[in-house]
Each structure stands twice: as structure tokens, then as C-alpha cells.
Amino acid sequence: MRRFYTFVVRNPKKILALFILLMVFAALCWTGVGVNYNVTDYLPPDTPSTEALEVLGEEFSGGIPNARVMIRGVSLPEALRLKEELAAAPGVESVTWLDDAVNVLEPLEFQDKATVETYYRDSAALYTLTISDAQRIEAVAAVRGIAGENGAVTGDAVSTSDATTGTVAEVRLITVIAVIFVWFILTLTTTSWAEPVIVLAGLGVATVLNAGSNIIFGEISFVTNAAGSVLQLACTLDYSVFLIHRFSECLEEKGSAREAMIDALCKSTTSIMSSGLTTVIGFLALVFMRFGLGPDLGTALAKGIAISMITVFIFEPALILTTHKLMLRTSHRPFLPKFDRFGRFVSRVMLPMLLVFAIIMVPSLLASMRNDYYYGAAHIYAEGTQYGEDTAAIEAVFGKSDTYVAMVPAGDLAREQQLSEALHEIPEVESVLSYVDTVGAEIPMEYLDEDTLSLLVSDNYSRFVITVRADSEGETAFALVERVRGVLNEAYPGEYYLAGDGVSTYDLMDTITADNLKVNLIAVAAVFIVLLLSFKSLSLPVILVLSIETAIWINMAIPYFRGSTVFYISYLIVSSIQLGATVDYAILFADRYLEFRQSLPRREAVIRTVSAITVSVSTSGSAIIVVGLGLGFVSKHQIISQLGFFLGIGGALSLAIVLFVLPGFMYLCDGIVRRTTLHANFLTSKEVKSHE
């Protein structure tokens, strides 16, 4: 490696020019990266609802209804006119209302009351729309314009549109907050006014390179788009800081800037590579999820960490060498005191803290597994947002509602009539639109016009649009999906397809809950193996992984004790991210403890270790805390917001355990660590006595 680093330090200008060109190219590519805001698009292709959506797209021109529009204070003629306006709006593929279910030319008093009140109640009309994915934003804006102040608009298409338009501004604000805070914390922890700018420049280059290279995926998920860049910044901050600190130390010894940089790179390679590798592995564990959001975020973040390490080893040395004279001219006294007193304080409280840790470990694990979850996107916008208020307004008048679309083999009208009757017997089913319900099994298909017929029957399938009185997720909704599938399977064993928001959410629940144990085991096992090889110790990987995993369990247990509901996607993703992003703190503690323990007794080694690492881990840890809480407070998208709060609180818990609990762990297990670690070379008992 020394030969390679020698080449790097001898060609700083060429390297800077190369990275600037790459950054410009990546910035241009960044604009071409699409963002997908639809959670259900990441379901595995072999799930029943995904297969149903594919068949639906092939057989029928109109998709699944994905929006509900309520307009208050309208008469029947006005409601019919508004239906025509909604149908003519750009991006609106179809509109379903009362006239599609009953004959509105006849008095409504003589129609089925339940059916009428599904669409028209208290002078309020409720329309069900199918909105094109390609024109989602334009369509939602047009529909809201037609609905006016007396209207309310909700549904999957609407929430996705709001996420698309709102998240862009949120990401910008979160990035600004993260950059300002990182600059502030670097100013506190460095001794030159130029160092924060140099570190941020390196982080900025790595972030742009990673964001632009996402073009290889075509599109990324909304979670990756919102959290990817700021997480990359927070997780790799310490690499640049560590290199600059090493360079400053070596410069005092060598005098020559180039020789000092070569030595700094050689000395920091192992620690940065081991920290980076555990972080990459933690993120790559998400790739093993069948739910596509995990691989999407995992590959982007793992790639980002790898790019950041390349930038630290190649771009940062060139930048530091080019600007090191500026660093010297802008040097200032340290703003932070030494942490010797803090180290001694920790040595006094570490054993009581370890006892508290042991007491809460098992309850936290059990509580973390007993949370209540949201699996889909139905609750991503809370009360206080326009979407949340519109949803509450519609549910106050018409109640909760969801729409399923069933497809069964066409050609047997008698069988379809039996199916319709069986579906109507389900208490939660409010209405069914199909050929046999709308036209009647006794009327031949030849008597219908082509446009009407194409909405109900294709060459191969008959379509049933089922409106149900239920939410799109929850125990009741999932039980309803199972019952509807049971009715369909009884009438058409293995020959039916069923799609819909609630159906997709059911499959989402079924998929991602199966991913949980697998992903966590892979992440823990992979990190354990890396630590085993890095430390050549049997005990240290257990101690370090157990410490961070307990921080994760406490983090995940907090919602249970608060009685709040967790988005399962956030829960699943944050476990791997917290492990990958914060195990570095434990690695740094163990590495310095082993170093100090070769010349000091165990208590003194703990004090020196805490004193030596507090600034480093607090710099990186505080960045993750602020980035996470920034996501939590700024984003109105509840999945992103909750993910942010988990990251912020989780980062704080990991930092606290490394600074207050891990010292006691290492102190008590000192003998075990010495006997199970290759070449530990700890100070012997006789040497300790002579030292004392």
C-alpha cells in the first residue's frame, strides 16, 4: 500500500482534477435518477397481489381505483356534472360513482340504501377514481382544483403524489441542517478553521459521486432518496477526521508534508478499512430482504460507504496536501478540554451502569418484538397534514373504505352470479361492480357497447370491483382479505386473481415479517466474523456485538412502552443501519483498550481509553443523532420521520453504551479477553503490582 500512497501524494493536482471531472459527471447523472414513492412496487414479483396487478394491466385498460374524492353540498345533477369534470381531468383514467351501481333516473328512495349511501350521503358525493401513475401529480392537482374547498381527496395515488412533491423540499432542508451541524461540530473538535471546510469538501465529493452513480439502478426508493446522502455523510465523517488527525501527528514527527501523509495513510488504513467494512456489511445485510426496499437502500448505502473510503484514501490526501499551508495559517487553540476527568468519572460509574444494562437487556429484547405495526402506506401522513385531514373528513361521512379488484375466468355467467352472491354475503362488502351485477346474467354481452363491456370483461377474465368497509391494514383488514380470497378460491380454485391496496398490504406484511429474522442474523453474523478476523479474538466480537445489539433492542422497545405503532419498514431497516453505523464506536474503544492495556492496569486503561475516544465517537455519534432527529422532525412522511427518530435515538443509545457500559464490560471481562485474544500482550499481574 505504501507504493500506492506514494503515487497518490506525488500527484495531488492530477487527482483533484480527476475527481472534479467525476463529480461534474456524477452531478449530471444525478438529475436522471428517478425516485419511486410507491411502497407496494417493492413487493417480490411472485406475491399473489403483484401477479394480479400484472394480469390486470394486460387484460384491462383501467387499473385499480387509487383515489377517493368527496365533494359536499351537491345535488344529484351537480354530482353527475362533477363526475364528468373529474373524468376529463388529465391523468384520470376512470371515475366510479352511484350511477355505475344503480339507475339514478329512478328515485333513490327505491334503490338499495346501503349501495346509495356508499356513494351519496348527506348531500355529499363520494367518487372512486383510477389515476395514472405517469400523470399522478398533475391529476391530483387537477382533482383537488375540481373538488374545491368543500372537497376532500385521499387514496394511494394522492399520498404518493404528496410524498413526491413534499419530500424533495424536505431532503434539501435536512441536508442543509446536516451540513451546518457537521461544520459546527468539526469546528469544535478540530484545531484549524480550514479543517471543517476540507472535511466537508471531501464528504461532498463522495456524496455527489454516490448520488450520481445511482443512475445504474435507474431509480431509487423514496427512503434512499431522503436518507441516503445524509446517512452517508454521518456514517463516514469520522474517516476524514481520523486521517486529518493522523496527518497532523505525523507532520510533527516527519516535517515533510508528503512523507507525513504517506505515514498517516499507512497507519490509518487498517482502522478505517475495518470500520468501513463493518458498516458496509451492516448495510449489505438489507440486500437479503425479499422486500425490494431493503436491497434498494442497502446497495445504495454500501456503495456510498465504499465510495467514501476511496475518497478518503485518494481525494482527501490530495486536498489536504494542497491546502495544508492554509490549515497551518488558520490554526487555533482547541475549543474542547481534555477528557481525563470524564474518563475517571466513567471508571467510577461503569459497574453500576453495567448492572443497569444487564437488568434491562432481556426486557428490552422481549418488548422490541411485541410492537404493533403498520405495514403499508395508509398511515404515512398524520393528522395536521392536508392528506390526514382529508382522510379524516371522508371517513367521518362515509367511514373507512377500500377497493379490491378480482379477476376470474370469463364465460360462465351462472358461476359468476354465484360468486357475486357469495361476496355480497360478506358483511364488510358494501358493493360489487361486475357484469352480472351491473348488466345482469340474463342479458347477452352482444347487447352492450364496447366501451362498457371492456371495463367489465376482457378476452380471458371477468372483473369484479369490490368496495369494502374496512381500512387497508390491521387485523380486521387482513382477516377480510383472507375471507375474500377464500370465497374466490371456493368458486374458482387456483384460477382467480385479487388485487387492491389492502391485498398488497397483506402481502407486504407477509413478506417483510419473514425477512426480519433472516436480515438480522445475516448482519450480526457478518459483523461478528469481521470482528473475529480483525481482533483475532473469540470474546471481543461477542462483547461488542452484544453491546450494540442491546442498544438496538432498547431503541425498538421504546415504542412498545409508549404504546405507539411502528412502521415495520422503519423497524426492519433501522436495525441493520444502527448496527452498521455505530459498531464503529465499539471497535474504536476495543482497539484503544487493547493498546493501552499492554502498558497499563485495566482500570487505568479504561480511563485512558475513554479519554482518548470521546471526541472521535462523539463527533460521529452526534452527527448521526442530529441527522436522524432532523429527518424525524422535518419530514411529514411518517415512514421517513420514524426512521429518522429511530436513527437519532439509536445513535444516542449506542454512544451512551459505548461510553458508559462497554468500559465496565471490558473491565470485568479483562481476563477472558486476555486469554481469548491472540497476541493480546496485556500487562501481567506482577507488572501491574510493580506499576501500582
Q: Topology, pairings included?
A:
Blueprint: H1 2-10, H2 12-30, E1 34-36, H3 48-59, E2 67-71, H4 76-88, E3 92-96, H5 113-119, E4 120-121, E5 124-131, H6 136-147, E6 151-154, H7 156-189, H8 194-213, E7 219-221, H9 222-254, H10 257-284, H11 293-329, H12 340-368, E8 372-374, H13 386-398, E9 402-409, H14 413-424, E10 429-433, H15 435-438, H16 450-456, E11 461-468, H17 475-491, E12 497-500, H18 501-535, H19 540-562, E13 565-567, H20 568-597, H21 602-634, H22 638-668, H23 670-676, H24 685-691
Parallel strand pairs: 1-7, 8-13
Antiparallel strand pairs: 2-5, 2-6, 3-5, 4-5, 9-11, 9-12, 10-11
Number of β-strand runs: 13
CATH topology category name of the largest domain:
Multidrug efflux transporter AcrB transmembrane fold
Structural class: alpha+beta
Biggest sheet layout: 5 strands, antiparallel
Explain what the structure shows.
The strands form 4 sheets. Strands 2, 3, 4, 5 and 6 form a 5-stranded antiparallel beta sheet that branches. A 4-stranded antiparallel beta sheet has the order 10-11-9-12. A two-stranded parallel sheet has the order 1-7. By secondary structure, it is α+β, with helices and mostly antiparallel strands. The chain folds into 4 domains: 177 residues, Multidrug efflux transporter AcrB transmembrane fold (Up-down Bundle), CATH 1.20.1640.10; 99 residues, Alpha-Beta Plaits, CATH 3.30.70; 189 residues, Multidrug efflux transporter AcrB transmembrane fold, CATH 1.20.1640.10; 121 residues, 2-Layer Sandwich (Alpha-Beta Plaits). Helix 19 packs across helix 22. 68% of the residues lie in helices and 9% in strands. It contains 24 helices and 13 strands.
